[in-house]
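Postdoc handover notes: sequence design on the structure in folder B. Input tokens:
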């Protein structure tokens, strides 16, 4: 997740306001990104589902499902660290 935060910080000047809103939401709510489908996530952020797909593509994922899988792994990793 740290690498994602750094990437967003480095590239945020090229992001649209919608992309920045999605990025902030994702970093503040990783569990929701890990659980929600594209439509649910779009509703939670207040953007279109297409914007969610574009965000995933901008991060280098092929689709929202890959972005979601990334966040699922991150959330699980955090939970494991918290338990140990």
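Designed sequence:
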């Amino acid at each position: 997740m740290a690498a994602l935060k750094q990437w967003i910080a480095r590239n945020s000047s090229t992001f649209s306001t919608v992309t920045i809103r999605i990025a902030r939401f994702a970093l503040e709510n990783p569990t929701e990104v890990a659980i929600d489908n594209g439509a649910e996530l779009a509703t939670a952020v207040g953007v279109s589902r297409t914007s969610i797909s574009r965000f995933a593509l901008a991060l280098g994922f092929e689709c929202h499902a890959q972005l979601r899988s990334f966040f699922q792994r991150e959330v699980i990793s955090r939970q494991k660290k918290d338990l140990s």
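Context for whoever picks this up: The radius of gyration is 12 Å. Don't rerun without checking with the PI first.
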